[in-house]
Design goal:
CATH superfamily of the largest domain: Hypothetical protein af1432
Radius of gyration: 39 Å
Number of domains: 4
Structural class: alpha+beta
Number of helices: 22
Largest sheet: 7 strands, antiparallel
CATH class of the largest domain: Mainly Alpha
């Protein structure tokens, strides 16, 4: 019985230790600690097991907190606070490697449990192996960690830290931070007051240093991941701005558009986030949502890289790569020469000089007047009345004689279009303004958009890609663009959405395409490319629409139109608000928060900034003043 009782006393703590070990193996660090044992070896094993469990729990808690931090500056601060606490140090300092060199720059400082500003301590960067670097740093360049003692004289630029600690001597623990490729990414420095007590040696035990090094290794991986992510974001942002700049540079008529729209969108978004209006109470963007809005605003016109420059810049109705008004003027010149030839031929046959001169002069004056009318129509600066269209068709019925083959010296593509009709016998009489079969460019099958397309595009796709007919182009009633060219301009939104939809954005940026692709939609569902209504659009997408319109109205770098003043632009937008083209609540915010003035002060010519009556604008827009 005595042997049985003794074995029970010995075995029971061992069984408890087995259960505790199984709990640790399952990452359960809250399992109750084993009871002390009267057997010395078993008791020591129990104490070691408890310490191991506490160490592992502390390590996993720290690594979890470091991996959970998504911002770089708070991450560095947490690394410092955690390691200072583990090391029971009075101060901690972190250096990070800059670029590809060996220079280490200070990035964070904790003194007596408080984060401190670096400039007030005059901390400098150092080269790892430079002769002028502190001795402890040179030692650390050849070791993973060092433990040394510094007096005030040897502290160098750490002297102000020692003064803040009110300690003339400190123990310094230096640990190199390695990345996954075993490259040094930074240094972690802990300063412990040298009190001369035995407790100091306890804090500098090898096992304590090993634990600090393990924690710093996890911190180094987190730091490297954050820096890589930050560099990737910088690269993406630079590429986005490069693309936006290229789009603006492609067309001198839209210079700066892709830079100004993001600035205005951000102003409006900040005002909405700060507004107390119930309409915007739910709009409190997270950091990820601000990033998505930033990217969408900069990429809102990325599809314009596919839009032909001569369509974007089309300043007259007959302009393609050149203005074809010159061809028509040449035909008028031919007709004027014909008038003179007819005059001289009739004179040679004995005709009445006075009558022939009057007829010649009337013909020449009529041709001059007709050409001046066509030239005016070509500008597209005013809407064409029905009488103007009738006169244009009457002029087009006049003919001129061509004696040269127009199928010589042209591209094979144009020859293919000309082959739709047989070649006429020369000389041939042709209309003064021609709409020829070769003026029609067939649309490739790949450019057709089926009704059941996965993106929800709802566009009236013209049969032809281009219609270069002269009479057809001159008959455009408003502006300079034909139906086909207007579709090409509008198609940049389709391309924007397609391009952004194919980019592998991370989860928090999946709505970039929706925000960027909605700035030409209208609240009543008559916009493009999806004919979305207000309730089908996100608030940022509706912000983009207002920013895009206001920038376009006030832009001074469009040679085909004069920049609007503030009052003119806002008056037009108030009418658009009344017609349900733009969001009324956002337009009200745009006026009440005076965002138009913030934008004007930064981007508009002072001559454009005139008096604005907010109350009358809100009334005109159908809103409460």
């Amino acid at each position: 019985p005595l042997g049985w009782l003794t074995s029970r006393i010995l075995v029971k703590p061992l069984r408890a230790l087995v259960k505790e070990a199984d709990a640790v193996r399952s990452f359960d660090f809250n399992f109750p600690a084993s009871r002390r044992s009267p057997v010395l070896e078993v008791d020591q094993l129990s104490v070691s097991m408890s310490r191991m469990k506490d160490t592992l729990a502390s390590f996993f808690q720290i690594t979890d907190s470091l991996s959970a931090e998504t911002r770089f500056a708070p991450l560095l601060e947490r690394v410092l606070f955690e390691t200072v606490k583990i090391g029971q140090a009075q101060a901690g300092l972190i250096y990070l490697r800059e670029s590809d060199g060996d220079r280490m720059e200070p990035h964070g400082l904790v003194v007596n449990g408080t984060s401190r500003a670096l400039p007030s301590f005059d901390l400098r960067g150092h080269e790892l192996q430079a002769p002028q670097s502190p001795a402890w740093l040179q030692q650390l360049s050849n070791a993973d960690n060092i433990v040394t003692t510094l007096g005030f004289e040897q502290a160098g630029d750490l002297q102000k830290v020692l003064l803040a600690l009110e300690c003339p001597r400190v123990h310094l623990i230096g640990i190199r931070l390695h990345n996954r490729h075993n490259e040094t990414v930074g240094l972690l420095v802990l300063l412990l007051a040298d009190t001369g007590n035995q407790s100091d040696l306890e804090k500098l035990r090898p096992d304590r240093i090993a634990f600090l090094q393990a924690v710093s290794g996890a911190a180094a991986v987190s730091i490297e991941s954050q820096r890589l992510q930050a560099k990737q974001k910088q690269l993406l942002d630079s590429f986005i701005q490069l693309l936006a700049g290229a789009i603006d540079a492609k067309s001198p008529y839209t210079g700066g558009h892709c830079q100004r729209v993001p600035a205005l969108t951000l102003m409006l978004a900040k005002a909405a986030a700060a507004s107390q209006d119930p309409a915007f109470s739910g709009y409190q963007p997270t950091e990820d949502e601000w990033e998505a809005l930033h990217i969408a605003a900069w990429l809102h016109d990325c599809g314009k890289v596919t839009t032909p420059e001569y369509v974007v810049d089309k300043a007259t109705k007959l302009e393609t790569l050149n203005d074809r008004i010159h061809e028509i003027r040449t035909r008028f010149e031919v007709l004027k020469r014909d008038a003179w030839l007819s005059y001289w031929q009739a004179m040679a046959l004995g005709g009445n000089e006075q009558h022939l001169a009057e007829l010649r002069n009337a013909t020449l004056a009529g041709l001059d007047d007709d050409f001046a009318f066509i030239a005016q129509c070509n500008l597209g600066s005013e809407a064409m009345a029905e009488s103007d269209l009738q006169r244009l068709h009457n002029i087009a019925q006049r003919t001129w004689t061509r004696t040269l083959d127009d199928r010589l010296g042209v591209s094979w593509e144009e020859n293919r279009r000309q082959a739709r009709t047989p070649a006429p016998t020369l000389p041939v009489s042709e209309p003064l303004l021609a709409d020829k079969p070769e003026h029609l460019f067939e649309r490739p099958e790949a450019e057709l958009i089926p009704e059941d397309n996965p993106w929800g595009f709802k566009l009236d796709v013209p049969r032809y890609k281009y219609n270069r007919g002269e009479l057809y182009n001159l008959s455009v009633t408003r502006g300079t663009l034909t139906h086909e060219e207007r579709y090409i301009i509008n198609h940049h939104m389709v391309q924007t959405i397609l391009m952004l939809s194919h980019l592998p954005f991370p989860g928090h940026l999946t709505n970039v395409a929706e925000i960027a692709g909605g700035h030409h939609e209208k609240m009543d569902g008559t916009g493009y490319p999806k004919q979305l209504k207000r309730e089908e659009m996100s608030l940022p997408a509706r912000m983009m629409a207002i920013a895009d319109i206001f920038e376009a109205l006030t832009a001074a770098d469009r040679p085909y139109k004069k920049a609007k003043s503030l009052s003119e632009a806002l008056g037009i937008m108030a009418a658009m608000c009344r017609d349900a083209h733009i969001d009324p609540e956002l337009f009200g915010l745009f006026i009440n928060a005076q965002i138009y003035l913030q934008y004007a002060d930064r981007f508009l010519d002072p001559q454009q900034i005139d008096a604005v009556d907010p109350a009358s604008l809100l009334v005109k827009a159908g809103l409460r003043a």
